[in-house]
Amino acid sequence: MSKHLFDLLLTPAEMAAVDAAAAASGIDSFGLMEKAGASVAAAALRLHPGALRFVILCGPGNNGGDAYVAARHLHESGARVALFHLGDPMRLKGDAARARIGCALEGQGLDLYRPETGDVVVDGLFGAGLGRAVSADVRALIERVTEAAIPVLAIDLPSGLDGRTGKVLGAAFRACNTITFMTRKPGHLLMPGRELCGELEVFDIGIPARIVRAEAGGIIAENTPDAWKSALPAGQLETHKYKRGHLVVFSGEADKTGAARMSAISGLKAGAGLVTIAAPRAAIAANAAHLTAVMLHAIDDEADLGDWLSDKRLQTFVLGPGFGIGARARGFVSALADRHLVLDADGISSFKDDPQQLFDLFRGEPRLVLTPHEGEFARLFPDIGGDDGLGKVDKAVAAARRANAAIIYKGADTVIAAPDGRALINTNAPVWLATAGSGDVLAGIIGGLLAQGLPAFEAAAAGVWLHGKAGQRAGKGLTAEELAAEVLPL
């Protein structure tokens, strides 16, 4: 795959437009299918040298055409090949029909396939273009293959997966390997698609990058430094702590101070010049016993906060970790409406009964970052979260537009979305990041980046990526304290 297309994710509709544009430019579309099918056959031989039989499943469209080409190449290589088709192969059109005619093998109906020891299934039924639940006969086939533990090599995407959302449409193959062409789709990265694809390889079949980029929407990509590094502040030899920003993290009561400290330490390690924990007077001693580089300031109520905010150097805040749910949180957020704010955990839950109250506070240039997990998202955006017709990216973007905020829709496939429609899918987080306090660390990292001047969306995306890298360094069995210790600045 061209490195210039590495981070780009194309929806199935966009990829279809790329194929059409390539053909319109004079590129031989059957030649592209020939290269695709040949790459699948080569991968099958490389990945499964001990296969006793390659079982090729051919669908009713161009994915099936790729499979017919792969079957021909495998047969010509001397491999034992059995071909099964969905529907009447005589009804194929265009390049797919040409591929079928060029394959000397006689096929059988899909329902006749019975797994045998030594089989490897090459799945060319649907690819990424499936838009509805699979039929009963396909579901039955998937169940037979799964129960027999037959290895599956998927062409483009395991059949039964939605290429845009990564959702299972009734039933789907679990592939050991997936071969796709030119670029990945969102469904390759979103769950459960990411797990069902197995090892993913992207083959360049000769479509010029300029055509791919011209047809791509360009608003969905993988979350990598290339997506936000241009927003990073330039390194300055002459600098001081205030130029690197002052981050304030609000603490909970005396028996709930640990979460704020983890956020504060993480913000400091992410590069903020100064970090202060704003705590109730009754919680000052509990915090002071554990802090050295982080400062403390007593804040009991909105009046105290209002007085402190007269210092205009205080521009960036984290509220939520261990803070407590209720009117006090809502009042503090209202006082911070003209500042940059990461709202996490208890801060989010404090607005569950009237989310619009929160959204109305943060209009204009986006300066709010929201970090909901699945349950918190459903409470803030019940209609969006409950819409089964939307994928995770669609939901995150819709929520970002409504809230005028950068949304971090957390999970194994965390999505970061901006009000302008941009979305990034994060892939670098190890599974062991799912531990108590991990979200507090993330909130602090994002706050530290906001304090240094990054826009809300870029701070959110960079923070999620740094969080994943810290998790990789900390290793399995990490605690939140160990995770915070592994945070490094950009």
UniProtKB/TrEMBL annotation:
Co-factor(s): K(+); Mg(2+)
Transmembrane domains' residue ranges: none
Enzyme Commission identifier(s): 4.2.1.136, 5.1.99.6
Reaction catalyzed: (6R)-NADPHX = (6S)-NADPHX; (6S)-NADPHX + ADP = AMP + phosphate + NADPH + H(+); (6R)-NADHX = (6S)-NADHX; (6S)-NADHX + ADP = AMP + phosphate + NADH + H(+)
Domain annotation YjeF C-terminal: ranges: 224-490
Pfam families, per the entry: Carb_kinase, YjeF_N
Signal peptide start-end: none
Residues binding (6S)-NADPHX, per UniProt: 62-66, 127-133, 156, 259, 322, 373, 440
Cofactor descriptive note: Binds 1 potassium ion per subunit.
InterPro entries, per database record: Carbohydrate_kinase_pred_CS (IPR017953), CARKD (IPR000631), Nnr (IPR030677), Ribokinase-like (IPR029056), YjeF_N_dom (IPR004443), YjeF_N_dom_sf (IPR036652)
Key words of the record: ATP-binding, Isomerase, Kinase, Lyase, Metal-binding, Multifunctional enzyme, NAD, NADP, Nucleotide-binding, Potassium, Transferase
Domain YjeF N-terminal stretches: 15-213
Molecular-function annotations in GO: ADP-dependent NAD(P)H-hydrate dehydratase activity; ATP binding; kinase activity; metal ion binding; NAD(P)HX epimerase activity
Residues engaged in binding AMP: 410-414, 439
Annotated residues for binding of K(+): 63, 123, 159
GO biological process: metabolite repair; nicotinamide nucleotide metabolic process
Function: Catalyzes the epimerization of the S- and R-forms of NAD(P)HX, a damaged form of NAD(P)H that is a result of enzymatic or heat-dependent hydration. This is a prerequisite for the S-specific NAD(P)H-hydrate dehydratase to allow the repair of both epimers of NAD(P)HX.
Subunit structure as annotated in this protein's UniProt entry: Homotetramer.
Family named by the database record: Belongs to the NnrE/AIBP family.
Protein name: Bifunctional NAD(P)H-hydrate repair enzyme
Underlying gene: nnrE
